[in-house]
Specification:
heterodimer; A: 2 domains; B: 70% helix
């Protein structure tokens, strides 16, 4: 029972046509002729969206020859860079779009959550939208009626449940939508990157809910760029690159493989130094990221502490500037910010003596950052200039 | 438990028993979407459902003024007020044109669902066909009051008899015809947005092509004019035969027989209704086939 295969994907491929650059005309006559021909051209273009003749250069394989199996009770993470084909794979698995070739067999009731709040109608109330969203996701009205109380409770928007959704804040909308989705009762749950919305507390609540689902013997397919979430939720993972499966294994192996694949494509940002500039009274010299072993790295494990070190030079003493350290998540949202400004005694970087100084920050291990690659630094000078 | 197989579907796999059961399984979605369509149209509007009354009434007033005072339409039977003659036809036509327009654009306006969730796509164009029945019902109530008013004030003008029992058949035929065309148009419109423009013209064209503002008896004059103009003998007959397959003709003449009666509308126009049914069935079945064959690419072309 435990080891039954519930999803079997065999040599799956999906082809799309991509837009090619329009040709340009350099004479009036040519443009006129093109104008007259344009309806035929547009027709051909629209028709080509669905029909493929010869293998021309604008054909794009979003998935190519993908095979894998998922056993009952598995939580499979699907990892890959943007454009690797993750979402297309989920769309084919959810029967939204048809594969070009290959075959999938699925045992059990599937619910897929590719977007939070699909089908929410702004003019309808929260309660009406629960019905709308729920039935779209495959629930019956009876099921929804039974779970209505739970759904409202989980969402935390009880007070506004009979208010049109257009008056909701975006956070409330997401809460309500996820709450509906969380109460689907499928045997196989397919989830795309839906955690990127909502506040930190709610995200944790969502992951918790999904863990419950996984523990209940349900099968989960989960796409995310959030390695922490994948690590927390999944037991196995596959790595996609340009529509092909390049690795399949345990979560830690695959996350490692993903990061190795990533490093080659990004510059080594573990250490940054800045050229000297004599015109400014304050200068940032160096920024480095180290682990506990004092190795300079550009990526860190979730369980590691990150030691940030910032070296700067003060050329003129002035109370006008201070150092501001801001940590941003993948959506460029401020996770936390700290500054050396102290209002009680007027102490700040500007009051440091002329010369070189070093500030150290530590980001403790297990900080649930949504993305640990996208840490950002903002240094304010005269509280308006960014370096 | 049955395995679900996902692979490229062959176009000849039209509509299996499984597809039908799936449609039944998703009936709650159909109801919810219908409810949404009905309740959303008149939300945040002062008059609300009053608009369902105002729209056809205003059109009827314009037509009555236009066709009785300016372009005088020759009626077969002077006992029937033009207002009634026109409004009885306008009510089913308004349903047809609004259902067709809404249904044609339905896949486009519900693109968000199509690209994000799986469900039997046939539900989407079906929703407006049913949801617009609410407006139709309201217009029918107004029509009822109007018939009652003329019945009281102009004795002999309205002679409703047992033919009214055939009305449900006509309504079903009207829905079949609307859905048949809509299946074709909605499946095309998601790839070729031109259909949204075409459908407006087409509805307008059908409004004058169907015997709504003019009595059906005038068709003879039109066909004989055609024969003299072209000089082809027998073309009048061919034209009339082809015209009888235009489902709106049977529906509208049928509505008049059901709701007005009297000398000129004593017999149900069965031959028009049967021909209209044949045409509607053809559109419906071919429409389902066409829609199903296009269905798999909706998410890719939307």
């Amino acid at each position: 029972m435990e080891n039954k295969t519930v999803i079997k994907v065999e040599r799956l491929s999906k082809r799309y046509r991509i837009g090619l650059r329009e040709e340009m005309h350099d004479s009036l006559a040519a443009s006129m002729a093109a104008f007259l021909k344009s309806p035929f051209k547009s027709f051909k273009k629209l028709k080509n969206l669905s029909s493929f003749g010869d293998e021309s250069e604008d054909v794009f394989w979003a998935l190519k020859d993908i095979s894998f199996e998922v056993k009952q009770g598995d939580a499979l993470g699907i990892i890959g860079m943007n454009g690797a084909g993750k979402s297309t794979l989920l769309k084919v698995l959810s029967r939204i779009t048809e594969p070009t070739s290959g075959e999938i067999s699925i045992k059990g009731r599937v619910a897929s959550l590719l977007e939070v709040g699909t089908g929410f109608h702004a003019d309808l109330t929260g309660r009406e939208n629960i019905f709308l969203n729920g039935t779209i996701l495959g629930m019956t009205r009876k099921e929804i009626n039974q779970k209505m109380e739970e759904i409202i409770e989980f969402s935390g928007v009880r007070k506004f449940i009979d208010t049109p959704v257009k008056r909701y804040s975006s956070g409330m909308r997401v809460r309500l939508a996820f709450s509906v989705a969380a109460h689907l009762d499928p045997e196989i749950l397919i989830i795309d990157e839906v955690l990127a919305v909502g506040d930190y507390e709610f995200q944790n609540k969502c992951i918790g809910k999904m863990q419950d689902v996984a523990r209940g013997g349900k099968t989960i397919l989960f796409v995310s760029h959030n390695m922490a979430a994948i690590n927390q939720l999944c037991s196995r993972a596959i790595l996609l690159k340009q529509g092909q499966k390049i690795a399949d294994g345990t979560v830690s192996e695959i996350i490692e493989a993903y990061k190795n694949a990533n490093i080659s494509s990004t510059s080594d940002l573990g250490f940054v130094s800045f050229p000297s500039n004599n015109d400014i009274p304050f200068q940032l010299l160096e920024l480095s990221f180290k682990n506990a072993q004092h190795e300079t790295l550009n990526h860190f494990e979730y369980v590691e502490s990150i030691f940030v070190s910032m070296r700067f030079k003060i050329k003129t003493v002035s109370p006008n500037y201070y150092i501001n350290f801001t940590l941003l998540d993948i959506n460029e949202l401020n996770v936390f910010t700290t500054t050396d400004e102290d209002y009680t005694d007027g102490y700040s970087a500007g009051n440091l003596p002329v010369g070189e100084h070093t500030y150290n920050f530590t980001i403790p291990a297990n900080t649930p950052l949504i993305c640990f690659f996208a840490t950002g630094f903002t240094l304010l000078y005269s509280s308006s200039k960014d370096y | 438990m049955n395995d679900l197989k996902i692979k490229k579907r062959h176009s000849w796999q039209l509509f299996s028993k499984q597809d039908f059961f799936e449609l039944i399984k998703f009936r709650d979605l159909l109801f919810t979407l219908i409810k949404r369509d009905v309740s959303v149209v008149y939300k945040q509007s002062v008059i609300g459902f009053g608009w369902a009354v105002i729209k056809p009434v205003v059109q009827m007033v314009i037509f009555t003024f236009l066709f009785t005072y300016i372009a005088k339409v020759q009626m077969d039977d002077d006992t029937i007020p033009y207002t009634v003659f026109n409004f009885v036809a306008l009510v089913p036509f308004t349903y047809f044109s609004s259902a067709l327009t809404a249904s044609t654009g339905s896949l486009i306006s519900n693109e968000a669902f199509i690209t994000k969730v799986y469900f039997p796509r046939l539900i989407i164009p079906l929703v407006p066909i049913i949801a617009k029945l609410v407006d139709f019902g309201i217009a029918m109530i107004v029509l009822g009051f109007m018939l009652f008013y003329y019945h009281q004030t102009q004795p002999g003008s309205i002679n409703i008899n047992s033919n009214i029992l055939f009305l449900p058949i006509l309504i079903i035929l009207l829905m079949m015809f609307s859905f048949g065309i809509s299946l074709w148009f909605s499946a095309l419109a998601i790839q070729y947005r031109d259909l949204n423009q075409i459908v407006t013209f087409l509805a307008q064209f059908m409004m004058y092509a169907a015997p709504i503002v003019w009595p059906f008896s005038r068709l003879k004059e039109i066909s004989s004019t055609l024969e003299t103009a072209t000089g082809v003998s027998g073309i009048a007959n061919v034209f009339e035969n082809i015209y009888s397959f235009f489902p709106l003709t049977g529906i509208i003449e049928g509505f008049r027989t059901c709701l007005i009666g009297g000398n000129s509308y004593s017999e149900m126009p069965w031959n028009l209704i049967v021909n209209g049914t044949i045409m509607s069935l053809f559109l419906l079945i071919s429409g389902i086939y066409f829609f199903r064959s296009k269905e798999s690419i909706f998410a890719d072309v939307a």
